[in-house]
Each structure stands twice: as structure tokens, then as C-alpha cells.
Amino acid sequence: MGLPRYIAQMIVAEHTYRPITGTIVSYGNNTVHLSPAEAVELLATFSIRPRIERFEIDRETYGRESLGRDVITMRSFFQSFSDAELKIVDVSPYEGAELIFDLNEAVPPALHGIADFVYDGSVLDNLFNPAMGLRNASALAKADGRIVMVNDWTKNLGRGSYVSMSPDWYLDYFSANNFADAKVLLCKSDRRRPQDRVRIFEWEPVGFNSERFPSFDQAVRYFFDGDLGQCTFRKDGARFLCFKGDDKDYVLSFSRCDDGEDVRLFEDIVIATVAEKGSGSTFEVNPSQLVYRDGQRTLQYMISCLKFMRSARRYPSKEYRPLAVEVRDLGLFEV
After folding, report:
1. Cα separation, 216 vs 299, whole angstroms
2. Which of 16, 20, 79, 280 is least buried, going by the fewest C-beta atoms within 10 A?
3. pLDDT tens-digit profile of 241-268?
4. 5-205+257-333 falls under which CATH superfamily?
5. Which of 219, 212, 175, 216 is nearest to 308 (CA)?
6. With 80 as the cut, is the pLDDT of residue 286 above it?
7. What is the DSSP string of 25-83?
8. How far apart are the C-alpha atoms of 70 and 57, rounded to whole Å?
9. Is 81 exposed, middle or buried (0-12, 13-18, 19+ CB in 10 A)?
10. Average pLDDT, integer, range 213-223
């Protein structure tokens, strides 16, 4: 996958939200799906003038050959708007990697906390041990470091991806490890028209949203007080099943998108995550899936997710300017 155009937009949008500085660690040397002219155009949509006079053309990555045009290197992409230093990690010196270790194994302690920004352009879905790959990204990141990951959910099953992780797999990890913020985005395209626009949806945490429950106390009272019995309800396109058990409280959600549109699994879906560590974040805690959580873990999930939903970071947002022509809503982006 590398670094497609719509993810490049997200990264620059993240930079405008909070500047990307210091050290960037990338899982592999990613192919950037932008020509020099396209990179200038993208930056212009954010009113950014390139910091470099000339873009370096990618002569190294394997993925560049399939694009049919000259594209820029990952290093020059980041240099065009940031002064951060890029370091590439891989299992071998393949494609110019500088940090050599197997992401299926625990990252060496000497590398803990070296990164201000970690990027994964479809490495987790090619690891035999993706959970370790996610923990390693968290271990590499500093206390206020950020992690951006882009991996297949339904796009390449049986056609290249090793594994597929659900949106809640990511969200549960970030909540269990007390991240300061986390957004899980579904990037949907039609496999019959792969060059069409990509539509972006924000995956909402299970069970409540900030509009329905403006305070954590209200959410807790709704789900944990009184006899809910069994009930179903719909709100903003979401469908939930809530019921009380003898020793656990459950809130199960079904397909949920930020504008109420269902996600159909016959479409190609890529999951992008944007997460920020906090001073109290960990990386080694294993989350429990929804129906197996005890009360304490459920409370931790709710506390974290309410914090995520209240953050000012938004994708899409009014500040996130798409390159698409005649866009009717902010969920459409060029491939």
C-alpha cells in the first residue's frame, strides 16, 4: 500500500493540527503515490509552500513501478513540510532501511521512545504477529508521540494480506493502554472502480457517543444503572443491542459510520488509525474483546473512548481540504 494520496492528505492535516517534528520512524520505505506536481498541489490545499526546492524521485521502492509515473520519495515528502528526521525500520536493509530488526519480535529496549511520529503503511497486515507490531509502534513512540497506521481490512484478503484486523482491534488497544487520543477511520472504495475517490468514515466507539452522553456520568448511569433488560435502538444510523447480565454489562454494536451509512463488506475497506500517546500511556497491556470484559475493563474502555471522542482532532473535518473536484461532502478523497 505504501503512502497513498488520501493518506498523505491525512498526514499533512495532522501536521497542521500539531506540527510533526523530531524523529519519524517508518515501518519500511513506503512508496508515495504522488508526483512532484501532485505533492505541490496537495500542500497548496493546506496553504503550505514546500520547504524544499526540488523533490527527490523514487528510484528504490518496489511499489513505484506499478504507478506508471515518477513519484517522490518518502523522505522528500516529509521534508517538503517538516524538519523531522526520517528513520526506516525493516527486517533487512531492503529498500534502504536503517533500523534492522524483525517487527514480529519485541523492539530492542534501546529504541523505546525514540520516535515523535511512527508511520505504518500496511506492514501490520503482512506480519505473522500483528499485535507485536502494534505494541512495537507504541514502544517506539515518545510519551506525546503519534502513530499513523494504514492496513487492509477487506481490500486484499486472499490477494496479498497475511491477516486482517477489525476497527475495534485497534480502538480496544489504544483505550486499554490509556492513549491520549485515537481515531479509527474506515477508508472505503469500490473495487470495481479502484481509481475512484475514497470515502472516509470515523469508527465510533461502541455503545455511546458524545452527543447522546455529554458527560461520562450520564453514560455510566445509562449503561450500568437500572434494569435495562433487553432492548434495541437506532440513532444516527447505528444499531445497538444492550442487555444486562448476571456479572457483566454488554453493549454490542453493528456497522457504524460517522454519517450513518453502512459499511458493506463487499467493498474494499482500508483502516487508518491516528493515535497519540499520553504521559500515562503504556504499550504492553492486552485488551479484552467487548463481551469478555469485566466491569473494570469496561469502565476503562468507556473513559478512554469518551476522551477520544471529545478531542479536537477530526478526520474528516472542515479543515481537511480534499483534492477531489466537485466534492459534495467532506468524506470524499482522491486515491
Report:
1. 10
2. 280
3. 333 333 333 333 333 334 444 444 446 7
4. Vaccinia Virus protein VP39 (3.40.50.150)
5. 175
6. yes
7. EEES-PPB---HHHHHHHHHHTT---SSSSPPBP-S-GGGGGGSS--B-HHHHHHTT--
8. 6
9. buried
10. 52
